[in-house]
Amino acid sequence: MIRVGLLFQAPALRRLSRSVLLTAAKAVSLLMIVCIPMSCTNAPADSQVSGTPSAAAGSSQAAVTPPSRPGAAVGLAMPAAEAFVGYYVQLLNHAYATGDVDPLLAASDEGCLGCAGTADYLKTTNGSNGGLSGDYVDHLVAVDGLFTGSSGRVGGTVRIRTGDYTERTAPTAAPVRRRSSTQTWRFTLSAANGNWVMYEVEVEE
Predict the structure, then answer these.
(1) Residue 74 has what pLDDT?
(2) Cα gap 186→188, rounded to integer Å
(3) Closest to 182 (Cα-Cα) out of 162, 164, 205, 201
(4) Per-position b or e across 31-64, b if 16+ CB within 10 A of its CB
(5) What's the confidence (pLDDT) of residue 145?
(6) CA of 101: how far to CAs of 48, 97, 106, in Å?
(7) In b/e form, how buried is each residue of 69-82, taking b as 16+ CB within 10 angstroms?
């Protein structure tokens, strides 16, 4: 559930100006990718509901222990870049469920504004505090179009599917039901300490 603006344009990778992204990050409709789940705010919203529905079978649950980087995502080869994207989605799902954003930020570039905006949102709105309920997990469908830019960074897109879930951005806020949706995120990876990290990520309009 990512809520950010266009962050790079192939083949040249770039970031939006900090002022533009920070303005967008202040809106609840902008966040994650990395949205409620990264796709959250851009997912279709039903009318506000009077109460939070009980989680259906197969609803989002993540282990308290964050996932570890798999061996396939170690190193700077192109296959490792693809595997890292899947790992990053796992870190997002962990943060959605628990509010623990430290592992997500550890796998993100320090200047990744989309990552920081998503983390700030998930600190206060997550499954453990009742801010998210239902099938809010991001399900990775496919990673496509990987390419290496002149800077050495890797770009591409990833298709993500999210189920039906309910979002409550504050304890006193009315719950809003989000319908299932499939989104495409654009991402840029950069190298750090011999591994890929998330340089920027955004929902493709």
Answers:
(1) 98
(2) 7
(3) 162
(4) bbbbbbbbbbbbbeeeeeeeebeebeeebbebee
(5) 95
(6) 27, 10, 9
(7) beeebebeeeebbb
The pLDDT, as a whole number, for residue 17 is 28
Other residues' Cβ atoms within 10 Å of the Cβ of residue 15: 18
Query: Where are the alpha helices (H) located in 63-137, listed in sequence order?
Result: 78-98, 102-106, 113-124
Three-state DSSP at 200 gives: strand
Query: How far separated are the first and last CA of the chain, in Å rounded?
Result: 13
Nearest to 156 by CA among 175, 184, 130, 128: 184
What tokens were used for 115?
Answer: 């990552």
Spatial CA neighbour of 146 closest among 47, 28, 20, 11: 11
**Mean pLDDT in runs of 10 for the chain (205 residues)?**
39 29 34 43 45 39 80 98 97 96 97 93 94 94 95 96 93 92 95 97 83
